[in-house]
Amino acid sequence: MAKQLIELQINGESYELAVEPNRTLLDVVRDELELTGSKKGCDDGDCGACTVIMDGLPVCACLVLPMDAVGKEILTIEGLAHGTKLHPIQDAFIQYGAIQCGFCTPGVILAAKSLLDENPDPTDEEIRCGIAGNLCRCTGYVKIVEAIREAAKVMRESAVPVAR
Fold it and tell me: Do 26 and 52 fall into the same domain?
């Protein structure tokens, strides 16, 4: 299959790439750009391990063709921190022990960011709904919900900008 030249906006940077049209955004992000935080889990959009934020919404990168991402702003877990300063959600995940094996963590954190950008003061039920597309086999979600609740509080108190 002939490669197509595209330009992607990822983590605030522009990348010009020649990609095969049948590859997924996940494959391009991981293999071509070496941004390996997003994981390939089910490859069917069921587990959320490959979650990225595209134009403010969480999407499964395994279901998006790179051509469909042209002209959109994409945020991966690598773009969430500012240099060595972690985002409040990342800090809270560490503080609350919401990370175990770490496979699902990037996707859950990005789903949480999207939720908190939309709803800065969610209930526990709203948090659970906001991360419902992300499967975690290690934590049981209690620590994840606690971490997101704490991050929401910290973000409200420090007025962390919602958009990136």
Answer: yes
